[in-house]
Amino acid sequence: MTKVIGVISIKGGVGKTSTVISLGASLAKDFNQRVLIVDANFSAPNLGHHLGLIEPEKTIQDVISDKADIKDVIHEHEESGLHIIPAAMIARKVQDPFALKKKLNSIKKYYDYILIDSSPALNEEIVSAMTASDELFVVTTPDHPTLSCTLKAIKVAQQKNVPITGIILNKVRNKTYELSVDEIEKAAGIPVIASIKEHHYAVEAVAHQSPITTFREKSPISIEYKKLAAAMTGQHYMDPRFHARVVDSFRKTQPKEVINRHVLYYS
Where would I find the H helices in 96-164? Predict the structure, then answer.
């Protein structure tokens, strides 16, 4: 069955759009899944721009306003195999953002996964993405201000009765001043399912308008996304880095996010 996953945060700059692209690209290219990514950030879209789709003729706003058929606004990204529904770069007011779920339902059968990039603001746009989703991933960074925003997003999702599968912890520097995985899980009551280290490769990938998982396939960022994608699909993934495999073999305990992914794998 198709899974529609909303990727949310209510603070800009945490890497939500990059997460949608990177995770989607790994699902498509590494695990042979049919993947559609959708820009539901109607007022400040970025998804298409990240992949070189700057001024599409028709967008998700046209679909929701019944000015275009949803099948006519789907673009293919050849490098990754992703299908993309972009939003208009010049903001257009959407009369009924809650129509997103109905529009996506008409094409669900063609995909294994649909990933929705939501608005980073606590508005009707993020609620539209939530209500169109079967489950949610929450993206946050390991600092107190962002965690505070994350808790607000989680509260809204819970009020809408949309299950949250896990937290993707992004831009991790492994510094003592950062919040730990345990601290974030305790505050949010949600498991952390991936921990993405900060690296300049992520910025380079955006500059090259390419998913990090294809731009730098063996980077630590890419490997973590691939491990998450593997768990989501119930497949095994072998880390191609010999040194990383040796280090893992000597670990007495696995990181919490690895343990949490085992649960995801068997769910």
Answer: 100-105, 124-131, 144-159
- Cα dihedral sign, 191-182-168-218: negative
- Phi and psi, residue 103, nearest 5°: -65, -40
**Residue at 178: amino acid letter:** E
Q: Which residues contact 87 (CB under 8 A, 6 or more apart)?
A: 39, 40, 41, 42, 45, 47, 48, 59, 60, 61
* Spatial distance between the Cα atoms of 27 and 225, rounded to a whole number of angstroms: 9
> Residue 36: phi, psi to the nearest 5?
-120, 130
How far apart CA 112 and CA 146 sit, in angstroms, is 31
What's the fold here for domain 3-266? Rossmann fold (3.40.50)
Percent of the chain predicted with pLDDT > 70: 98
Backbone angles phi, psi at 232, to 5 degrees: -65, -35
Q: What is the largest CA-CA distance in the chain?
A: 58
The one-letter amino acid code at 45 reads P
Residue type, 141: T
CA Rg value for the chain: 18
Residue 32 CA to residue 45 CA, distance in Å, equals 27
With a cut of 90, say whether residue 214 has pLDDT above it.
yes
Domain map of the chain by residue range?
Answer: 3-266
136's CB contacts (< 8 A; 6+ apart) are 5, 6, 7, 8, 130, 157, 162, 163, 164, 165
Q: Each residue of 86-135: pLDDT tens digit?
A: 999 876 667 787 899 999 999 999 999 999 999 988 888 999 999 999 99
- What phi and psi values does residue 147 have, to the nearest 5 degrees? -60, -40
- Please tell me the distance from the alpha carbon of residue 122 to that of residue 114, in angstroms, as a whole number: 22
Token code pair at residue 73 = 């606004």
Q: What is the pTM of this model?
A: 0.94
